[in-house]
Amino acid sequence: MFVPREATILHADLDAFYASVEQRDDPRLRGRPVLVGGGVVLAASYEARAHGVAGGMGGAEARRRCPGAVVVPPRWEAYVEASRAVFAVFERTAPVVEGLSIDEAFLDVGGMARSVGTPTRIALRLRDEVRAAAGLPITVGVATTKSLAKVASALAKPDGLMVVPPECELALLHGLRVERLWGVGPVTARRLARHGIERVGQLAGLGEVRIAAMLGPAAGRSLHALAWNRDPRPVRARRRRRTFGAQSALGPRARSAEELDTVLVGLADRVTRRMRAAGRAGRTVVLRLRFADYSRATRSRTLPRPTAASGAVLAAARALLDEARPLVAARGLTLLGVAVANLDGEEGAAQLTLPLDPPAPPGIDAALDAVRDRFGPRSATRASLAGADPGLAMWLAPRRRGR
């Protein structure tokens, strides 16, 4: 088996991300057990984790285990802003960055030793720069494969660094519990424990055929390879998305034309805001319909030029919905969706200059975006949405942007 001579893959993972942002922004929370989210724990600080609290746990159980915990509501805009600052550091650090979520990524620093420094020095500098740019602790694992780098960062938490030399990989890996392997959750771990398998070394010694007999062929191949640190997957930059879309489930009640238009306005606004935030424009507007008999239909219209303007996308979506009125009347509509495809950078698409972007002046969209970015996604909405049915209130303003 070929083993690279140097560990050049970094797995960088922010520590208790949401909770850390809350502690960063409110000095009164530092050093105290913090739970983000009341009904279900979205994140727990390490002070809370010491009491057995974990993300995904019910709020009542979390408070029972940690009576002194401070519960705070999530602040999505703050988390997105912090993530952007951290990913900007990632992009400055390595030529190839593969984001896994809002708070973690793989970085490939191969070939940078002469110009920048060893992977260890790069990892140390990355941690310092994240602390300086975002004020957050981050843990980094360094190894020859993605799977082992992720294992290393988990072992080094919180606020740590672990570099696994190639010659030490299997000794480290085989001494760990099987739960440390990527893809081994509680159910798989229990199934392996019933066969007396608790350590990765025991799993590696079984062979692929026996593991497959216990867990199935796909799991057998995957876990046997990971137990021997065979993970050929390269770090890949995230592909540019090919569509932007949003949809709304309407429920069984029939909706009036005015109600459907309200939903359509909200969908178009949400989709185009995400496009503008990503710096993308598209030519093809797609309307997605689901009917009461569970059948589906799509309608599309290609515009002369790419656009990210809410008005242009809304006008096309309205025209498509008008064309589909007979189907809606006959079958009943239970879901409505809007998507924009044929994005700039793809074949047949071209960048649009703003003065040619009808029918809404781009300044309106830009002004709304600026207000929402500063004061939150529900701080401003379009007048056409202001009197919407409370049952459609989710569309009064765009939802938060994700990862």
Describe, in plain words, how this protein is organized in 3D.
The protein is of the alpha+beta class. The chain folds into 3 domains: 1-163, Reverse transcriptase/Diguanylate cyclase domain (Alpha-Beta Plaits), CATH 3.30.70; 175-227, DNA polymerase, domain 1 (Orthogonal Bundle); 244-395, Dna Ligase, domain 1. 40% of the residues lie in helices and 18% in strands. The protein is built from 15 helices and 12 strands. It has helices at 17-25, 46-49, 59-65, 76-93, 119-134, 146-156, 169-174, 186-193, 200-206, 208-215, 217-227, 257-278, 310-323, 325-331, 362-375, and strands at residues 9-14, 34-36, 43-44, 70-72, 96-101, 104-108, 138-143, 161-163, 244-249, 282-291, 296-307, 333-343. Strands 5-6-1-7-8 form a 5-stranded mixed sheet. Strands 9-12-10-11 form a 4-stranded antiparallel sheet. A hairpin with a 4-residue loop joins strand 10 and strand 11 (296-307). The longest helix is centred in the middle third of the chain and has 22 residues, at 257-278. It is globular, with a radius of gyration of 25 Å.
Radius of gyration: 25 Å
Q: Helicity, in percent?
A: 40-55%
Mean pLDDT: 84
The chain-level structural class is alpha+beta
Along the chain, the helix and strand elements come as EHEEHHEHEEHEHEHHHHHEHEEHHEH
Q: What is the class of the largest domain in the CATH system?
A: Alpha Beta
Largest sheet: 5 strands, mixed
Distance between the termini: 36 Å
Strand order of the largest sheet: 5-6-1-7-8
In CATH terms, what is the architecture of the largest domain?
2-Layer Sandwich
> Per CATH, what is the topology of the largest domain?
Alpha-Beta Plaits
Which blocks of ≥5 consecutive residues have pLDDT under 50? 345-362, 384-403
Count of spatially separate domains? 3
CATH superfamily of the largest domain: Reverse transcriptase/Diguanylate cyclase domain
